[in-house]
């Protein structure tokens, strides 16, 4: 998420509009090392 706005960051580098629903496969996600093996390889 964008730190100042709290909105989702999309794959293209853009930030979601207010109220916009962005599918998970189109979000720029940062892997969480604590969840290795559960949600990502």
TrEMBL record:
Its GO biological process annotations read: methylation
Q: Classify the source by domain of life.
A: Bacteria
Q: Which GO terms describe its molecular function?
A: methyltransferase activity
Write the record's keywords in alphabetical order, separated by commas: Methyltransferase, Transferase
The keyword Transferase belongs to this UniProt entry's keyword annotation: yes
Name of the protein in question: C-5 cytosine-specific DNA methylase family protein
The top of its lineage is: Bacteria, Pseudomonadati, Pseudomonadota, Gammaproteobacteria, Pseudomonadales
């Amino acid at each position: 998420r964008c730190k100042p706005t709290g909105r989702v960051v999309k794959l293209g580098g853009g930030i979601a509009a207010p109220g916009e629903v962005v599918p998970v496969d189109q979000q720029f996600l940062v892997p969480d090392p604590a969840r290795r093996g559960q949600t990502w390889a």
